[in-house]
Amino acid sequence: MDITFKDVGYTYQVGTPFESRALHEINLTLRDHAFTAIIGHTGSGKSTLVQHLNALLKPTSGTVTIGDRVITPETNNKNLKPIRQKVGMVFQFPESQLFEETVAKDIAFGPMNFGVSEEESLKRAKEMVQLVGLKDAVLERSPFDLSGGQMRRVAIAGVLAMKPEVLILDEPTAGLDPEGRRDIMGMVQRLHQENQLTVILITHLMEDVANYADQVVVMENGGVVKVGTPREVFSNVQWLRDKQLGVPETAAFADQLIKKGFQFKQMPLTETELADELLPQLP
Amino acid sequence: LLGRFIPGDSIVHRLDPRVKLLMSFYFVGIIFLADNWQTYLFLFLFTMVAILLTKIKLGFFIKGVRPLIWLILFTVLLQMLFSSGGTVYWSWGPIVISSYGVVNGIYIFMRFVLIIFMSTLLTLTTPPLSLADAIESLLKPLKVIHFPVYEVALMLSIALRFVPTLMDETEKIMNAQRARGVDFGEGNIFQQMRAIVPLLIPLFVSSFNRAEDLATAMEARGYQGGEGRSKYRVLSWQLADNLTILAFALVTVVLVILR
Amino acid sequence: MAKIIDVTNLNYRYPQQTEHPALKDVNFSVDQGEWVAIIGHNGSGKSTLAKSIDGLLPIGEGDSGTIKVGGITLTEDSVWDIRKKIGMVFQNPDNQFVGATVEDDVAFGLENHGMPREEMVTRVHEALKRVRMLEFAKREPARLSGGQKQRVAIAGVIAQQPDIIILDEATSMLDPEGRVEVLEIVRKLKEEENMTVLSITHDIDETENANRIIVLDDGQLQESGTPEKIFAYGNRLIAMGLDVPYAERLRTALRKRGTIVPAQYLNEEGMVDWLWTSHLKM
Amino acid sequence: RLSARSIAILGLLMALQLVLGKFPVFGIWSVRVDFVFLATFIMGWWFGPWWAGLAAVICDLVNTLILGGSGTYFVGFTISAFLGGVIYGVFFYRQNMSWWRVIMATLIIMLVVNVFLNTLWLTILYKTPFWGILPIRILKDLILTPIQVLLVYWLGTNRNMLSLRDRL
């Protein structure tokens, strides 16, 4: 399911004194089965952009095409629900959406809203708990008795249980420790590779972009300023610095080495790539 | 962000919030004195002068009437239809439109409008925080009867400080649940009631967690009750404040004479 | 050097979770002017340790040990004096902002100590200037970024002029810019005021500034050493709740490919220099 | 004396009460249902009549004076707010939740506070004819009562809310 933006603009609180333009002239295609990372400063419009992907927001100008559904400013608010089942959204700090008395019920909540039977939903809950790396024993516990990292996984399981085709994650590892970050990102990568999920990731962590994404969208002041593969985007270290976007550690390190006279065929993005390229240049 | 305060530099803006608060209470009191067209006209003129002094457009004041418009129309209509006396213009069974009724209706309308204008004047010209300070300051005498003034003031300021935070949070949770297939405000009454469960529980839980964090931070910064605390924010009473009180006193005298 | 924090045989259990102790026999001390980073994965007891030093935890039966701050033993009577010596910055920028505006928040701690208003005004002004938030003095917290809110929290600490600043995962919820700003300010405070810093963190940049790193696991002190020593643990750092520094990752990757790499940990600069000199020898 | 913790929790609940007043999540016919009463109920349940009453008073002050809610400040409505908090406190503070308690508390608040007192205040303040608006008020409250009963009972027996109370 491709998602296409055509001349999309979005303005908050149109017609009030607080009117503010959050997006303008967005033209973008997010391909089926791709892993896209969206980067940019806080306030650059990333979160507004992704809320168009499951029709939580409708464009104030232009059109968003999600699979075979076309969303325009005139689209009726009803009947948007099927889109939200197909495009699952994990908000930042998603543990704040937990509310049920047990983990199982909370995970089953989403699918049941989309008409899946209770029995089937609870069965999915059991699957999803394993998928996000938790033990069956948590199913009957209150989600509020779990640790922060476990709550985060339950919340993600709650979205996965809807069996979406597209998974949007807004900084899914914010506030977690390195181990938790690695686990969550590993899980996302598995979902992408094994379950063929289209993944859209908002992140500040350039390492994650370099390691997992195959397309990067760079946003600034409500517009898209660059789209490309991680290597294309990260090759120009100076451009990244000018935009104050943060440079992946490998690229930054390689950049220092280039200044010292090292040469690389292409900009290395991970330490293994860098090591491979360094090997022939060392005694 | 909060409330309806419109920043400005008028003489009304600069008045001590305590004076504005007290006088807006007092105004509700003296409006009971109005009982004929002279008194109503006088109060109307007085209110208009006050509004003029704020340098804020009249439209903002009229907006304050909007939420009560049905109550106003309903009250005015009942007054007009069911009070008898004077010349009868039209009647049908118990329903009578008389000159007395029409005049009464107009008075009631004026009463509504004047009260709303005056309290709107307060909220438009006074920042929320100043009003909170004023409330605290005016509660202070209650310390004599062991009323927990400091604690209440602190709660009030915490409440004000967290309203925008919780507004954002509410919005966020609603979006998250919408993404999980919840429709807010749609369907029959039971569906609508069911829809708020996934909103309310997270809100209560998050408020509780925030409060715990906040309490820890407060204690880490040496908060041990209201005793012995000093205050960073101060209010200062000036000549204009005394003059305002004088003006209201004069209005009262005039009203009594005009009655 | 004088020990400004001295913890001996500290044992702690949370009232609700009596079966599992949060801290077991913890012993450690911090010197005046030292920057100590405490690391450990989530649930290892780091935050518990920080809070117990400030007397912020309810003490029950079976909790034992002594905590001395600036020579004073922490007791129910001395806790308020000790809190004056310590400024804490917590994880969630929103939940520690007490005041309705920036300046009110900075003044909150001073008000608690009954400081005369004139002095408060100068201290608030000075503190906001130090964290470069002066122009935001009248702002409400809802209009600030996470990093700005944390800077205000630090201003609140500065205004109280404590000897110690404890950062309890203070940068973990910030975006990269916010993180850099906050760390820069803390670094300056330490240099200019000789303030003692205790930072609980997962962030590698934060630990690089430290003089010493302490590793907690399951409520016990596992390890203590210079960043160089701790960073050399390579991939084991992840289980300790810390990222692996980039230079260390590269050193491991090169070693795996058979390159003879230096035996000890090198920081990034050191790594570049070493690569460069080896490169020249070719 | 109140601990920092209780002050913070009450302060946050007050903030929540103000926020809930701004989100009319649903309505039936033209009766707007907001959830302000749920925050008041929680304060009464957790902190007792005195604090719940006091907090409700402060919320009323904030709502009318600061947020510029409906109309003007009038001491009568403050009395109503106070009584609402007190009644929830009397019925639920350190008491077991039961259907009849919920029904009684809700009915008393509806009849005494909403129907009788609030109509009286309008009559005093705006000379609105008492008997003229009483039927409308009664009709509106007839619709609201069962909704409030259900929601209060549900919230008061919710496992997550109970565990929050245990953490107090």
Structure report:
The complex is a heterotetramer of chains A (283), B (259), C (282) and D (168). Chain A has 283 residues and is α/β, with parallel strands linked by helices. Chain A contains eleven helices and ten strands. Chain A has helices at 46-51, 81-86, 103-113, 118-131, 148-160, 178-194, 206-212, 230-235, 237-242, 249-259, 271-278, and strands at residues 3-12, 20-30, 35-40, 61-66, 69-71, 87-90, 166-170, 198-202, 215-220, 223-228. The radius of gyration of chain A is 20 Å and the shape is globular. The mean pLDDT of chain A is 92. With 259 residues, chain B is mainly α. Chain B is built from ten helices and two strands, in the order αααααββααααα. Chain B has a two-stranded antiparallel sheet with strand order 1-2. In chain B, helix 5 (69-82) runs antiparallel to helix 6 (99-125). In chain B, 42% of the residues are buried. With 282 residues, chain C is of the alpha/beta class. Among the domains of chain C are: 1-85 and 195-241, P-loop containing nucleotide triphosphate hydrolases (Rossmann fold), CATH 3.40.50; 245-282, no CATH class. Chain C has helices spanning 46-53, 79-85, 102-112, 117-130, 146-159, 176-193, 204-208, 227-231, 236-239, 246-256, 268-281; strands at residues 3-12, 23-31, 35-39, 64-69, 72-73, 86-89, 164-168, 196-200, 212-217, 220-225. Helix content of chain D is 79%, strand content 4%. Chain D has helices at 4-22, 36-66, 75-92, 99-126, 130-157, 159-166; strands spanning 26-28, 31-33. Chain D has a two-stranded antiparallel ribbon with strand order 1-2. Classes of the chains: A alpha/beta (283), B mainly alpha (259), C alpha/beta (282), D mainly alpha (168). Chain C: This is Energy-coupling factor transporter ATPase. Chain C: It holds the Pfam family ABC_tran. Chain C: Its main location: membrane. Chain C: One of its GO terms (molecular function) is ATP hydrolysis activity. Chain C: It is a peripheral membrane protein.
Helix-strand layout with pairing:
The complex is a heterotetramer of chains A (283), B (259), C (282) and D (168).
Chain A: E1 3-12, E2 20-30, E3 35-40, H1 46-51, E4 61-66, E5 69-71, H2 81-86, E6 87-90, H3 103-113, H4 118-131, H5 148-160, E7 166-170, H6 178-194, E8 198-202, H7 206-212, E9 215-220, E10 223-228, H8 230-235, H9 237-242, H10 249-259, H11 271-278
Parallel strand pairs in A: 3-8, 3-9, 6-7, 7-8
Antiparallel strand pairs in A: 1-2, 1-4, 4-5, 9-10
Helix pairs in contact in A: 3-4, 3-5, 4-5
Chain B: H1 11-14, H2 17-30, H3 37-54, H4 58-63, H5 69-82, E1 88-92, E2 95-98, H6 99-125, H7 128-139, H8 149-179, H9 189-220, H10 239-258
Chain C: E1 3-12, E2 23-31, E3 35-39, H1 46-53, E4 64-69, E5 72-73, H2 79-85, E6 86-89, H3 102-112, H4 117-130, H5 146-159, E7 164-168, H6 176-193, E8 196-200, H7 204-208, E9 212-217, E10 220-225, H8 227-231, H9 236-239, H10 246-256, H11 268-281
Parallel strand pairs in C: 3-8, 3-9, 6-7, 7-8
Antiparallel strand pairs in C: 1-2, 1-4, 4-5, 9-10
Helix pairs in contact in C: 3-4, 3-5, 4-5, 5-6
GO molecular function (chain C): ATP binding; ATP hydrolysis activity; ATPase-coupled transmembrane transporter activity
Keywords (chain C): ATP-binding, Cell membrane, Membrane, Nucleotide-binding, Translocase, Transport
Organism (chain C): Loigolactobacillus backii
